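Ticket #4471: complex job returned nothing on first submit. Input attached below:
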Amino acid sequence: MSEGRRLWLEEELQDDLKWSVQVKSILYQGASKFQDIELIESGPFGKLLMLDGKAQSAEADEFVYHESLVHPALLSHPNPKKIFIMGGGEGSTAREALRHKSVEKVVMVDIDQVVVEFCRDYLPANKEAFEDPRLEVLYNDALVELERSTEQFDVIIGDLADPVEGGPCYKLYTKDFYEKILKPKLAPGGIIVTQGGPAGILSYKLVYSSIHNTLAQVFKHTLPYATHVPSFADQWGWIMASDEPLKEPVVADLDAAIAKRINGELGYLDGRTLQAEMALSKAVRKGLAAETHVYTEDDARFIHGSGIVNGH
Amino acid sequence: MSEGRRLWLEEELQDDLKWSVQVKSILYQGASKFQDIELIESGPFGKLLMLDGKAQSAEADEFVYHESLVHPALLSHPNPKKIFIMGGGEGSTAREALRHKSVEKVVMVDIDQVVVEFCRDYLPANKEAFEDPRLEVLYNDALVELERSTEQFDVIIGDLADPVEGGPCYKLYTKDFYEKILKPKLAPGGIIVTQGGPAGILSYKLVYSSIHNTLAQVFKHTLPYATHVPSFADQWGWIMASDEPLKEPVVADLDAAIAKRINGELGYLDGRTLQAEMALSKAVRKGLAAETHVYTEDDARFIHGSGIVNGH
Amino acid sequence: MSEGRRLWLEEELQDDLKWSVQVKSILYQGASKFQDIELIESGPFGKLLMLDGKAQSAEADEFVYHESLVHPALLSHPNPKKIFIMGGGEGSTAREALRHKSVEKVVMVDIDQVVVEFCRDYLPANKEAFEDPRLEVLYNDALVELERSTEQFDVIIGDLADPVEGGPCYKLYTKDFYEKILKPKLAPGGIIVTQGGPAGILSYKLVYSSIHNTLAQVFKHTLPYATHVPSFADQWGWIMASDEPLKEPVVADLDAAIAKRINGELGYLDGRTLQAEMALSKAVRKGLAAETHVYTEDDARFIHGSGIVNGH
Amino acid sequence: MSEGRRLWLEEELQDDLKWSVQVKSILYQGASKFQDIELIESGPFGKLLMLDGKAQSAEADEFVYHESLVHPALLSHPNPKKIFIMGGGEGSTAREALRHKSVEKVVMVDIDQVVVEFCRDYLPANKEAFEDPRLEVLYNDALVELERSTEQFDVIIGDLADPVEGGPCYKLYTKDFYEKILKPKLAPGGIIVTQGGPAGILSYKLVYSSIHNTLAQVFKHTLPYATHVPSFADQWGWIMASDEPLKEPVVADLDAAIAKRINGELGYLDGRTLQAEMALSKAVRKGLAAETHVYTEDDARFIHGSGIVNGH
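Support reply: We reran it on our side without changes. The output follows.
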């Protein structure tokens, strides 16, 4: 009987590739002044948070994305106390940062208060994080808020939508932004980490290699890494950058650091998994090394509507 | 923004043809012991009532289907007082029958009380009909209820799901059923009308010509007719049958009869429209004349999961 | 096994409704300087001619469209000798016109020589028509060729693509075109007939009612008619217009005229079928009567990419 | 123009997840007595070889799959001379094996001679391999041919379709097969490697963990590894097994071994990439360790129609 009709969420991954996720029910529909907000019960990925009809985060594997976004940078820093999150309205990035015992303050800046409050109310996994007194949430453009901050941060996390044509987010991937606005707000030894878009052998040139190269113009050291995120239908990439060396980890040290510095058990990462994330495959490594494009406001690269996590 | 709207209801019209209707929201999800019940706000067709994931009725054009199902038979009868509806849980068939001033009693038999009550509460267009004291609703198998009825009816209306393999409804399309169970319950001069499935030039052989031929084995006269129902993605067919002659209407007479006998204004039918419905195209007329198949329990024809109106 | 993967041709009927036709094989792929040309073996509709990826004509039901486009106008004319076809590159429109014994000359103007020659070579049903000495084929913009013609025609047939935004065809649906360019080329008593787009109760306002109203500004009489074309997924409409009265036919007369004036047997039309085509349903009739929009170059209405027959 | 390109190949990845690959053209269509054979030019993945409507191998990333299938096992063996390939009709597995300087003989057993000859003629990348005198191709059931072989092999490679319900291939994944038929044909120190199906964090329990556990019942040592294959829409897994220890590689040694033992440059693998493949993520490692299911003919696990490489 269910064969006859099926409710599907269709996503264009590229203009020549799309996928369709079965929808069991729509748990919530609403809108802020910035975007439509939906929470969907999907067949393959459990609850899906959707903004403007795009999947942002899936119950089944958001931990892969968020652990990979947050912990490598915080573990690479000897003692991260102050964290700034650009975007991250869903709260999962803050949740992971707040697991670090050293963290004293997390400032999260997301433009959409309605989304943040929706996620606080509807995503049980993030409830505790939203109540953590160390978390300060600001509703604004992350760029504006970062610029006018008088503080410096140990780790700044870019949990922003992909640079999509027509969207404003690409400004937070430019060399000018990194150099003039972000870098001054990094404390000595500070690390920036950003999500970097698809990083598969057929997709890393869309934006990932450019974001990496742009960061490499501004910081002495970069460390790209990636892993497979099922609900994103691809390998996904992140990039750390700093003026301090970012050493690749030794497994045993990492496992010890995780045990010592992070509350609770991680679902995805351990030393070995993180080491594998940092071992990009040969073709991607070569491609990153060969990339010459630098993001500027006048020369940006864009990705087909596959934004992930918003915050701008 | 329209990129964001990517929720689709996919229906297999045939195994080599499917269509996808944009879904704006899901207004209700529930279940009875017989089936799942959903009410969906669709892009092209307004509210869609779905049973077991199949569209039953669309706000935008259910009047085409239900006026065409009900009025031709009632107008062909000189003075229809007692009506029996097999299925019709949605209430729209009863609504149309109750518009006839002559009608004194409508017995509607649908197996699923939960669906009937859902439609009563959620479909404003049928609210008044459900409150009409002339309507008697029974929750049972229409076959069982018809068999044990001690009354005879002027018009019996088959508002049943298409004969789908594995579904039980095909039993209400067989020669045995028409002959032994239904016909004895028709009052003298009584008329049976049933929905007959797709009736387009490429689809009428699926079941429509067989249902017609089956009725022609049992009744002296049949009158097939059809029209385009957008949300069914095809021309749709109905068949009247009676032992009394079923004359094709003269437009002027029909318009007068509609004005005199039916309360309110019809949305779809007038004399001319009804005359056109009865003028099946040449190829379909030839095909009906050439059909030799007769529905029996052992030799039924089935349609690809495109059931319309349930009630069994 | 075939369940696992399926090749589908996806068409957006509207921005909130699409359908998918199973593809068995691609018989031909090529391109002219105007458009891509493909011939596909489809599951439900046999061979599908596609231009720029849009289905133009289906083996299974092109006769419905082309008989309906051509014969009503030619039968409404007492003695049609000279016919002008705007578009019609496929050849099927010429084929139907040439079946009329009275016809002495058919001028067909299609902009794309490659398409015409492809259809001549690949569509067996039209082979004979292309070899008929009464047929003259010109490769040009139909508007230009009509304007510079020194002849007058008994029937001018618009077998053009729908007015689609960005396409040039909408110019051949404007009041100026009908009045200043087309009408002077009609012989006394001459008739123009054009395809008019979707004409279902939910779709006739897209362009059909406007095309009808535009013709009604220029000609004393119009006669709209429609029928269901399965591969177009909708009811389809045509409009005749003339300064001579266009009487609706009497069935017996029509059958006699078809028998007398047309070679061979028609697949779709007979008197009764044609009469039913001309009996638009009540809602569509009312809607045509209420339409006030007139096509001009500055105020055109467009249809979602569902072009049918090209020729401009 | 891109609106026009609407031909899609739809694959059900799971019953609640499907994806659609744009088709540019169909380069070949044919059939053997076992299956349909098609070669399609796809948008995202270049040429796609399809058997029975299922994608087997994509031009854009088949090297990821085939290098990962072949080289780890051959590099883990000190001096592989004789190789047996179960399936592999496409020729790519043989091609990779033949790049090893030590290899003296490759026996490839595929049931479908027509597929093998098609690939030999149509896939330029494998032309040289098919002409290599060290390659012996047999057309038969791999199980039968392996059983009756009088030789022993250094490496046996399972390049078979996934265990799909109703397909015969699952027999080549059972404990009985590995123990009674395959293991006796391994030379001392010999290694079996097989493709193992999807190995993502949400998919590894479908079959991968069971295949791994089954091999672990029969061999003293197993070594599972995985990587992302874009055209398979998931992380993909392989498993080596042997009675000799299978040590995880040290990067420097591996790079040296690749340079010394393999002709030409690998496209995907180097020491670091291979090391990352072998570092399964924490969740998958735990899941493999916890698996208790063993494949037998009476208790097999099956995967939704997503077979890859046939050969049985």
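Confidence is low (pLDDT under 50) at residues 306-312 of chain D. Closing as resolved unless it happens again.
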